[in-house]
Amino acid sequence: MDNLLIVTTGGTIDKVYFDDKSDFQVGEPQIGRILEELGVAFRFNVIPILRKDSLHIDASDRDLLRATIEAQDARHVLITHGTDSMVDTARVLASIEGKTIVLTGALNPARFRGSDAEFNIGTAVGAVQSLPPGVYIAMNGRIWDPLKVRKNVAANRFEPVS
Questions:
Q1: DSSP state of 79
Q2: In a 3-state reduction of DSSP, which class is residue 51?
């Protein structure tokens, strides 16, 4: 992998908790900090294009994401994305050719102790380097085909479509 393109869209992975408001807001992208702290042995470029909860990502946001990815030379793309509409976005990106694209996120904010963010990012980095061109989702320790996975909101995990 020559260079990893990382595009951030917000979601739980980047959320910040404010005690005085008792709610979450999407903050600065965390993935660059995480990769730097881990001392990864590859170059990466982070392009933050959105700072939204994925329930608020719409068709125009997905068009922007698609155009951003298509405009870059990178063949390896990692997208951080909220989990609620990650599958929808992955399906929109499926027709991009010649790139390996992996979407990942977190069920708990990266700033929280015990967050799944670092594990999911590590899984996604491994996947983006080893899989053939196409679009994939890296969550819960697995690599998923976006056409064969869904988020089980009640269980707070991704699972095969039955």
A1: E
A2: strand
Q: What are φ and ψ of residue 90, in 5° steps? A: -60, -40
The band of 61, judged by pLDDT with boundaries at 50, 70 and 90, is very high
C-alpha 39/C-alpha 121 separation (Å) is 14
Q: Is 66 exposed, middle or buried (0-12, 13-18, 19+ CB in 10 A)?
A: middle
For residues 161 and 96, is the Cβ–Cβ distance under 8 A? no
| Residues whose CB is less than 8 angstroms from the CB of residue 63 and which lie 6 or more positions away in sequence, other chains included | none
Region for residue 37 given its phi and psi (left: phi exceeds 0; alpha: psi -120 to 50; beta: otherwise): alpha
**The pLDDT of residue 20:** 56
Is the CATH number 3.40.190.10 carried by domain 3-160? no
What pLDDT digit, counting tens, does each position of 71-88 carry? 999 999 999 999 999 999
